[in-house]
Design brief:
The protein is of the alpha/beta class and 547 residues long. Helices cover 67% and strands 6% of the residues. It starts with a helix and ends with a strand.
Length: 547
């Protein structure tokens, strides 16, 4: 079992990075690794690991939905009015119905079995959509109108709806439904009457439990300080979120995944500093969870059945997406302030399948439903086709179809490369400049450019400065540059060439007349620098933004 985990993590990570460098989504490589390591090809993954794939996938989905909740913006959702709610019901419902009708024609399914397939294929994948939408938010695409927030919320609600209908149909087809007046399609009247109430209960109780959990976490982690660092904050929060998922399986009166997402949303409202720490922690957890999710997903795909249903399965997916889901998108955004480009973005942004299909695609076959093998094969095909396409198309078409707005750093983690420029001379103040630059770099995992402008031909002094930088920055990625030229102009030029975020410079050099003024060099850099400048003097730090 341990050997299988090692193979999953190492092969999944490196093959994922290879596909990323080939300009394809990393999840494509991870799914391919799962197919190769799975029982269909090399049979490398232990049966114990495959048996535990369902709970492992549940953990991964919990992590990604907590990330989604921690990235939602209440103001943007309120601005959208009912668009997010409509996106949660209409596209999924229309796609499920169109797929059911197509399956009746292509595979000769009855309507309940066709609708069962529609519920599986119509569900959207949080594993693909959530990271992509959070990435768009961190870059500012579509944030002015709250488009990523509407898609995030809508995808969570649509999964609640389709999973409820799926369970209802499964009970009927497995001959476990209660008696009642039978309608033409074989669904009991009592089931139809209970469905709206079930949906309301699932959503309402899920949101309430999310609020209660968020308040409890704020009390434990922020007010009573039961934890000492962000790692412990993340572990405690992840376990509470997982408890919601477990309780929802034992007491199916609410949506556990929706409760998890609501917990993250309410944490932002109740304690933004705690939410910011958790956002970083769950980003780290997702790095591992993503590998397990997609590798195990690939390992569950049955290649021989997939081959037999390839063409009709593709037709089913096309009908569901381009006809059913497109109708739902149109109805969802009717009367909104979205233009035609933003509506068109829903095609790549709201179509990916992966997580739900992997979780429930095999259930009809396991319960002996007629056509179960076909349903599983089409579920696998929908993953292989739409997940890579969605992961590629979202970042590709967002700049072409969406408008760029101002990023709100309180709602998303903005990942950027931080580079600090430490401008030093050969005076004793150079050590303090390097120490300050090292301190800033360790806090933000930054790189440091150590710049020395040569004024006199003294190779020994330059070499001594280089060795000092190597010693003080030994645990930090850094580069030492020694050049000639005008000091202020060269500092600014190098800062622009390396796209530095901050400049650290000594307030006084070793020139005697520098004691009178702030210092000719530092004063000139302050006046012309396009980035913030940090002045270092006698162990005291003064910060001035030259802008």
């Amino acid at each position: 079992m341990l050997e299988s985990i090692v193979w999953i993590l190492l092969a999944g990570f490196f093959v994922g990075q290879i596909t990323r460098r080939l300009k394809a989504p990393a999840l494509v490589g991870m799914v391919l690794v799962g197919i190769i390591l799975g029982p269909q090809v090399t049979d490398t993954i232990s049966p114990d690991v495959l048996a535990a794939s369902a709970p492992l996938r549940a953990i991964a989905v919990m992590i990604i939905l907590m990330k989604a909740g921690l990235g939602l913006d209440r103001e943007k959702l309120l601005q959208q009015g009912t668009v997010a709610l409509r996106l949660g019901f209409l596209p999924a419902a229309c796609e499920a119905v169109f797929i059911a009708l197509a399956a009746m024609w292509i595979f000769k399914f009855d309507f309940p079995t066709g609708l069962l397939l529609g519920c599986i294929i119509g569900a959207e994948s949080p594993a693909v959509i959530v990271p992509a939408m959070l990435r768009l938010k961190s870059l500012g695409w579509g944030v002015t109108k709250g488009i990523p927030d509407a898609i995030l919320t809508g995808s969570a609600l649509s999964d609640v709806l389709l999973l409820l209908v799926f369970n209802l149909l499964l009970s009927f087809l497995a001959q476990e439904a209660d008696g009642g007046v039978t309608l033409p399609f074989g669904i009991t009247l009592s089931a139809i009457q209970l469905l709206p109430l079930q949906i309301i209960c699932q959503i309402l109780i899920g949101v309430i439990l999310g609020l209660v959990t968020a308040r409890l976490l704020v009390v434990l982690l922020a007010k009573q300080n039961w934890t000492q660092n962000s790692v412990q904050d993340t572990l405690v929060t992840a376990n509470f979120a997982l408890l919601l998922v477990v309780l929802a399986e034992k007491f199916p009166f609410f949506s556990g995944y929706l409760a998890v997402m609501a917990t993250g949303f309410f944490l932002i409202e109740l304690d933004p500093p705690l939410a910011r720490r958790l956002r970083s922690g769950f980003d780290s957890l997702w790095i591992v969870a993503e590998i397990f999710l997609f590798v195990l997903l690939g390992a569950s795909i049955q290649l021989q059945v997939l081959e037999q249903t390839l063409l009709p399965g593709l037709l089913i997916i096309v009908v569901g997406t381009l006809m059913g889901r497109a109708l739902g998108w149109y109805l969802s955004t009717l009367g909104s302030n979205w233009n035609w480009r933003e509506r068109l973005f829903l095609l790549p942004g709201n179509s990916a399948k992966a997580t739900v299909q992997a979780a429930i695609g095999a259930i009809p076959l396991a319960q002996g439903i007629q056509g179960g093998e076909t349903i599983l094969a089409i579920a696998a095909l929908s993953i292989l086709v739409t997940a890579p396409l969605g992961a590629w198309a979202i970042p590709t078409f967002a700049p072409k179809l969406l408008e760029r707005g101002e990023v709100d750093p309180t709602k998303v983690a903005i990942a950027r490369r931080i580079v600090i420029l430490a401008a030093v001379d050969t005076s004793p103040l150079a050590s303090q400049v390097l120490i300050k630059a090292a301190d800033l770099a360790r806090r933000s995992d930054a790189e440091v450019i150590v710049l020395h402008i040569i004024r006199t031909n003294d190779p020994h002094a330059v070499e001594y400065l280089r060795e000092k930088a190597q010693r003080l920055l030994a645990d930090i990625r850094h580069k030492f540059i020694a050049i000639t030229g005008s000091i202020p102009e060269e500092i600014i030029r190098v800062a622009q060439d390396y796209e530095v975020t901050d400049i650290v410079i000594g307030k006084r050099g070793h020139q005697p007349w520098d004691e009178v003024l702030v210092g000719s060099v530092s004063q000139a850099v302050l006046e012309i620098s396009p980035v913030p400048v940090i002045l270092v003097e006698d162990e005291r730090i003064s910060v001035r933004d030259s802008k």
